[in-house]
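Progress against Task 2.4 (sequence-to-structure conversion) is shown through the following example record, which the project officer requested during the mid-term review.
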Amino acid sequence: MFIGVLLLSGIAYAAIHYMRTADGKERGERIEERIEQDVTDKPLQTQPNDSTLLKPVVFEDKELGTMLTEIAAFYQCEVVYKSDAAKHVRLFFTWDKSTSIDDVIATFNKFERIHITREDQKLIVK
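Structure tokens generated for the chain above:
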């Protein structure tokens, strides 16, 4: 009886080991096929939607020129200054990257000494 239990246990162990090994190889092949398919099927994104890239940026006592350079680069715009003094206005500003460029301009225009307009991809600062 002891030999029979030992024999059955050995057969069960061998069957389980064989099934895990065979299933693991197939599963690994299926995962590799799926990864290859996902890579070839997905279009390239120009800008990732990663939340860490859209964290708010805090400008503390920075010149407007410095801020607008970074903001314009993010929105792929060009900055044109009508007045050189406007570049050197110092501000405290929190920029939320998830907002549109028009909302950012509207927020800047709430300051008394700044007036920004947008024409296509140009930000005109007066």
